[in-house]
Amino acid sequence: MYIVANRIPVAVDWQDEFENRFRQRVGQIDLQAGFVSMQILKPVSEGAPYVVFTTWQDEAAFEAWIHSEDFKLSHQNPLPKEAFTGRPRIEKHQVVIST
C-alpha cells in the first residue's frame, strides 16, 4: 500500500468551508483506479494542520490520479490565500507493517 499525507494548515475561520469542500466531493476519488481510502483529520491542537490521508494500491495509482482530469477539477476553485496559515506539505509513504 502507498499512503499520501497532505498536511494543510487552515485558518480557524475557514475550517468549516475547508471541510465542506471535501464533503461536496465525497465519492469522486473513489472512482479512481487503485484508490483504497481517504481520511480527513481535523486538528485538535491549536495551530496544527488538517491531515488528508489517501491510501492507494501503489505509487502508480496515486501518480495516475494526480495527472487525471478529476484531480484538475477537484483543485480548480481553491480557497483564497487567507484561508491558510502556511503552505501544505505532502508526505509519501510505503506501508511496511499493518495490523
From TrEMBL:
InterPro entries the record matches: ABM_dom, Dimeric_a/b-barrel, Heme-degrading_MO
Gene3D superfamilies: 3.30.70.100
Any Pfam family hit: ABM
Domain ABM: 2-92
Origin superkingdom: Bacteria
Signal peptide: none
Protein name: ABM domain-containing protein
Gene source species: Shewanella benthica
Record lineage: Bacteria, Pseudomonadati, Pseudomonadota, Gammaproteobacteria, Alteromonadales
